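Urea ABC transporter ATP-binding subunit UrtE structure dump, as promised
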Amino acid sequence: MLSVQRLEAGYGESVILRDVSLAVEPGQVVCLMGRNGVGKSTLVKSVMGLLKARQGRVIFKGEDVTKRASGDRAKRGIGYVPQGREIFPQLSVYENLRIGMEAHRSSAQRRSKEIPAEAIDRFPVLPTFYKRRGGDLSGGQQQQLAFARALISEPELLVLDEPTEGIQPSIVDDIQEVIRSIRDEGKTAILLVEQSLDFVRSVGDYFYIMEKGTIVWQGAREDLDNPAVLKHLTL
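structure tokens r here:
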């Protein structure tokens, strides 16, 4: 599904990612972990085409998309929920969701004014907010909106960057259940960036840990409690 191969990327003269490789298989939830500032979001932006790779390749469904624009990657089937949500605060909830339709691979769906029920059924509170501005929602509600906006395009790969950051525990539980249900359906793979060990244990199938811009460990859930692994996650 997704293969990141020996990726190098950074900002200006600074190199953040060095020789990073990881893979996400169809229907799998892969969790990317590590302390703040180790390069997780930089890797996500490189996968999405928001940051140009200096070396290495990003392969999606067998095709090299390393030089493809972010919009093209979205239309090929990659959905994205960025850190900080990045909804449009002056637009209504409905208008924010409609923007998500622009990434749909079907031109008929892109023209449709109806929000697909499959995208919002997971977040039943959103239709009651259709006329409200996105900026008037709570942080947790904005996260639900950003999640639903990404699902509207029916992605084959969903990239989630810190989806539980700064939101109330009840909505963290809701997001946990949504990720589990997506995994159980087996139609959409997920690359999840998350720092909560309890959260990733509950939803993940395979795990990578980053440190100083490189992958320092990868393995299965049962190996996460190894002290040699945990040392990369503690302050």
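Residues 17 and 213 are 4 Å apart (CA to CA).
lmk if u need the other ones
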